[in-house]
């Protein structure tokens, strides 16, 4: 089983489906080199395979990451990098060269051990603030 993302003319993800595994070429109709190509032709849209095991550039099972991150509706695909990337989470965040969104203020040192969330409202009121600890 594989997952495929359909893109609009701006490379925005408009749908993600479960389809035939790319390795299953025995059933691939004549004239097509991949299921990605077949699905795209069938729908008349650009279609790119995506992996639900790849999140933010990391394969969750320790394998090789595939195309940046799992495609999400309203996310995007970058042709040059051959990667999917998420939609902008907050107006103040910017995208880096790895196609990952970065906050304007570094994450707190204990971000991985404490429950933090971003508050765009707090940042807009005082651009030295933004991270809110959920336990306080």
Topology of helices and strands:
Layout: E1 2-7, E2 13-19, H1 35-43, E3 46-50, E4 54-55, E5 58-59, E6 76-78, E7 83-85, E8 94-95, E9 101-102, E10 116-118, H2 120-125, E11 131-133
Antiparallel strand pairs: 1-2, 1-3, 4-5, 6-7, 8-9, 10-11
Structure overview:
- The protein has 136 residues and is mainly beta.
- The protein has a domain at 2-87.
- The chain has 2 helices and 11 strands, in the order ββαββββββββαβ.
- It has helices at residues 35-43, 120-125, and strands spanning 2-7, 13-19, 46-50, 54-55, 58-59, 76-78, 83-85, 94-95, 101-102, 116-118, 131-133.
- A 3-stranded antiparallel sheet has the order 2-1-3, with helices on one face. A two-stranded antiparallel sheet has the order 4-5. Strands 6-7 form a two-stranded antiparallel ribbon.
- β4 and β5 form a beta hairpin.
- The chain is elongated and about 60 Å long.
User: If you average the pLDDT, what whole number results?
Assistant: 94
- Helicity, as a percent range: 10-25%
Total number of helices: 2
Q: Helix/strand-derived class?
A: mainly beta
Computed CA radius of gyration, to the nearest angstrom: 18 Å
What is the CA–CA distance across the termini?
44 Å
Uncertain segments: none
Indicate the proportion of strand residues. 25-35%
Strand numbers in spatial order across the main sheet? 2-1-3
- Topology as H/E string? EEHEEEEEEEEHE
Q: Which descriptor suits the 3D outline?
A: elongated
Number of strands: 11
Largest sheet: 3 strands, antiparallel
